[in-house]
Structures are given as structure tokens and as C-alpha cells.
Amino acid sequence: MTDAQRRALDELWPGYGVDLGGGELDLTAVFGRLAPVIMEIGFGNGESLVQMALARPDNNFLGVEVHRPGVGRMLGRIKELNLNNLKVVCVDAAEVLKSHIAKDVLDGVHIFFPDPWPKKRHHKRRLLQTQFIRSVERALKPGGRLHIATDWQDYADHIVEVMASIEGFENIAGKGVYSPRPEYRPLTKYEARGERLGHVVHDLIFEKRGT
């Protein structure tokens, strides 16, 4: 962690960080307004999320990341750009969804380039498993969307398989079909580097069925 990231965590967290407390978040109070809320899980260095928040000022964005240096960098960027529609949580996403997000409140969940855990013996560590997806489904409003991007083919296949087993979602591109990268998802440095190495990026977008 750099000195600047440490200072950001110490000084900027009260303004841009979210302390979860013991119950469900009041998202209108968190952002100080009523607006659609998009959660991004595992935002890394945060630049993609910052760009989306800049481009979509009418939406609120809640970034969830456990890597403290990335959180520190994000806090600095929020301050630098004076963003009032982006807040940060530094807690494991599974815990956030299980205990701190109410049912049917999120308009979208983004998970871009999660750790693929490529070795077969590590596949059980992958984030996108049935139980986690059901937590996402609970948090999303009917019509809300789960957007996943990965450049690991094996992980993309795994995600398609898991999602096919959950009746509450519909692949907006068609069963087993990948979506083109939507305009709202910025092309990241990580993605551009992967493309130069011949990695194919797959976007998968699922909509929660109405109830």
C-alpha cells in the first residue's frame, strides 16, 4: 500500500466509504438520494467503475472490494473527480449480499474479470457458484441485470452452466450465447493487455425474471 493510499483510507473513508453496521443498508440514505443502484463486486484498482460513474451520473454505484490498496486508490479518485454517485465497501461481497443488502433493491450487479482460479483443484474457490448467484438474485430487482465479464474460456463455460441451473435468470442474448461488450463497460488496461495476448473476453448478461 502506498502512502497516498493509506492517507486516503484514513482521511477520505468517512466521506466516501460505507460502514455496514449490523443490518441492511438504507441505500437512499447512503447516497443521499433515490436513484438506480449498481453494485460492482471486485473493482480492483477501480478505474473502470470510476469511468462508469462519470458517464452515468443519474445512477448510484456501490463498489465492493476487499483489497485495501485498491480501496485507497478508489477513494482518492472519488475525491479528485468530486463524484457524489460512488461509494465504497471494504468487506467480502458474499457477506455484504447476505447480511446488508435488502431483497429486490439493486438495479444491476457487475462482476468484471473475477479470479478464474484456473487449476482444477481450486475451482471450488471461484466466486461464481450457485449459492453466491442466488444471493445476487435475491438482491436484484425484477428486471435487474447481472453482468459478468471474463477472459477465461473455462470459467465462462462454468458460468453458463451455473446460470442455466438457476431459473430466476434469463440470458438476454439467448441460452448459452455471449453478449457483445455493452457501451457502458469501459475497455480496461487489463482487458486490452489480454486481447494482445490472444485472450477472448466474454460478456454474459442475465436479467432477473419478474415475479
Describe, in plain words, how this protein is organized in 3D:
There is one protein chain. With 211 residues, this protein is of the alpha/beta class. The protein has a domain at 103-211: Rossmann fold (3-Layer(aba) Sandwich), CATH 3.40.50.150. The chain has 8 helices and 7 strands, in the order ααβαβαβαβαβαβαβ. The protein has helices at residues 3-16, 27-31, 47-55, 68-81, 93-99, 130-139, 153-164, 189-196, and strands at residues 37-41, 60-64, 86-89, 106-112, 140-150, 169-171, 202-208. Strands 3-2-1-4-5-7-6 form a 7-stranded mixed sheet, with helices on both faces. α1 crosses α4. The radius of gyration is 17 Å and the shape is globular. The N and C termini lie far apart (45 Å).
What key phrases describe this protein's structure?
seven-stranded mixed β-sheet; single chain; Rossmann fold; alpha/beta; 8 helices; 20% strand
Largest sheet, in brief, is:
7 strands, mixed
Tell me the structural class: alpha/beta
Task: Report helical residue fraction.
Answer: 25-40%
Return the string of H and E elements: HHEHEHEHEHEHEHE
- The CATH superfamily name of the domain at 103-211 is Vaccinia Virus protein VP39
Shape: globular
Gap between N and C termini, in Å? 45 Å
Strand order of the biggest β-sheet: 3-2-1-4-5-7-6
If helices are DSSP runs of H or I spanning 4 or more residues, what is the number of helices?
8
> What radius of gyration results from the CA coordinates?
17 Å
Q: What is the assembly state of the chains in this entry? A: single chain
